[in-house]
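step=encode ok
step=design start
structure_in=
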C-alpha cells in the first residue's frame, strides 16, 4: 500500500449563494499533531478497522490485527457469548514502503508481535475454549503452532518476546483479575509477576504495562532483576497501552489527559518529560515504536459520515506514523 504524507487538517467550507451566511463543516481526514511531532504518514486506509501495530526489529515489516464485522458467529449473531465471537479477528502483515498487505493468520487471532529474528510472530489464538498463546512464521508455511498445549489462565493475550529471545511476557486472567506473566520460550517455567495489562519489553530487564489504580489505568514498570513495580503516571485520566522504544530510553502511551479522546504521548523511561504528540477531536491510541524511533498508532480520523467524526469508538481505525521530537 502506498504511503502518503497528508496535511494535518482539512477544512471543507461550503458556501451558499451570495449574500447568505457561510456554513463551515469540518471533516478531519487526518489526526492533528502538536509541534512535538513530525512527518505524519498514513500507513493503511482499508475498510476494516486495524489495531495494535507492531514493527519488526529489522524495521522492515508491520503486523497488526483487523476486525471484520461482516463475519458473524455460527449462531447468526455478530457478538456471540461463545469463543465463536472471535472469528472476525485476523492478523495482517505489511512490508513498510511497499504496496499491499498479506493475510498471515486467519480467524480467531489477535495481538501479534515479532520474535527478534523478524521472521516469526507470536499472538493470542482464540479458537480454543480458553484463548492461548501461539506462533507462526511470516512466510505462511508453518501454520499455527501452540507455545503451550493448554492455556495458562482464562484468557492468554498480548504476548511479547524479550529482545534477547529468551522469555515471553503476556497477560492473562485468573478469576477476572488480569495478571502479567513470563515463561520460557518453550512455554515452561511460568511466573506470575504482578497485576496488569499488555506488557512490553525493554532491553534493560524491565517490563512496562498498565494497571487500574482506583477508577483509572496508569502506566507501571516492573524491574525483572529486583521484582519492584513502579507507577510512573498519575492523575484522574486513563494512561494505557505503553510501549518501550527499542533502546529502552522512552515509553510511548495513550492518555485521556488532554480531553475525553485518547491521544499519543511519549516520556522518558522513568516517567519524566511527558510530551504530547497528537491532539484534537480524533481518537488516537495503541502506539508502538519502530527501531528508528518512529511511532506507529491507530486513529479513527476520517471515520463516520462526512462532516462528522466517529468520536470515541473504534468502528473505524487506520494505522498512521509520526516522528516524535525527543528530548535527551
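sequence_out=
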Amino acid at each position: 500500500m502506498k504511503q502518503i504524507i497528508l496535511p494535518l487538517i482539512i477544512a471543507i467550507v461550503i458556501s451558499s449563494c451570495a449574500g447568505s451566511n457561510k456554513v463551515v463543516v469540518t471533516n478531519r481526514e487526518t489526526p492533528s499533531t502538536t509541534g512535538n511531532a513530525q512527518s505524519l504518514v498514513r500507513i493503511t486506509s482499508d475498510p476494516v478497522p486495524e489495531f495494535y501495530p507492531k514493527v519488526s526489529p529489522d524495521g522492515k515489516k508491520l503486523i497488526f490485527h483487523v476486525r471484520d464485522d461482516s463475519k458473524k458467529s455460527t449462531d447468526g449473531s455478530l457478538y456471540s457469548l461463545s469463543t465463536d465471537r472471535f472469528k472476525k479477528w485476523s492478523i495482517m502483515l505489511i512490508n513498510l514502503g511497499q504496496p499491499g498487505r498479506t493475510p498471515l493468520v486467519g480467524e480467531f487471532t489477535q495481538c501479534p508481535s515479532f520474535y527478534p529474528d523478524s521472521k516469526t510472530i507470536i499472538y493470542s489464538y482464540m479458537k480454543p475454549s480458553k484463548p492461548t498463546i501461539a506462533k507462526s512464521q511470516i512466510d505462511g508455511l508453518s501454520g499455527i503452532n501452540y507455545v503451550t498445549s493448554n492455556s495458562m489462565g482464562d484468557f492468554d493475550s498480548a504476548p511479547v518476546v524479550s529482545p534477547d529471545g529468551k522469555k515471553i511476557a503476556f497477560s492473562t486472567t485468573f478469576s477476572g483479575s488480569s495478571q502479567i506473566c513470563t515463561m520460557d520460550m518453550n512455554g515452561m517455567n511460568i511466573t506470575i509477576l504482578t497485576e496488569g495489562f499488555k506488557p512490553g519489553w525493554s532491553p534493560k530487564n524491565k517490563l512496562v504495562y498498565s494497571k487500574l489504580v482506583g477508577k483509572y489505568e496508569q502506566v507501571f514498570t516492573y524491574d525483572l532483576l529486583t521484582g519492584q513495580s513502579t507507577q510512573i503516571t498519575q492523575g484522574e485520566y486513563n494512561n494505557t497501552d505503553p510501549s518501550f522504544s527499542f533502546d529502552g530510553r522512552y515509553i510511548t502511551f495513550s492518555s485521556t489527559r488532554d480531553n475525553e479522546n485518547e491521544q499519543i504521548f511519549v516520556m522518558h523511561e522513568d516517567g519524566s518529560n511527558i510530551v504530547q504528540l497528537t491532539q484534537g477531536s480524533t481518537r488516537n491510541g495503541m502506539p508502538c515504536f519502530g527501531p528508528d524511533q518512529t511511532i506507529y498508532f491507530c486513529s479513527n480520523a476520517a471515520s463516520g459520515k462526512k462532516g462528522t467524526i466517529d468520536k470515541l469508538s473504534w468502528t473505524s481505525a487506520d494505522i498512521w506514523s509520526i516522528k516524535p521530537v525527543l528530548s535527551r
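step=design ok
step=annotate ok -> The two ends are 34 Å apart (CA to CA).
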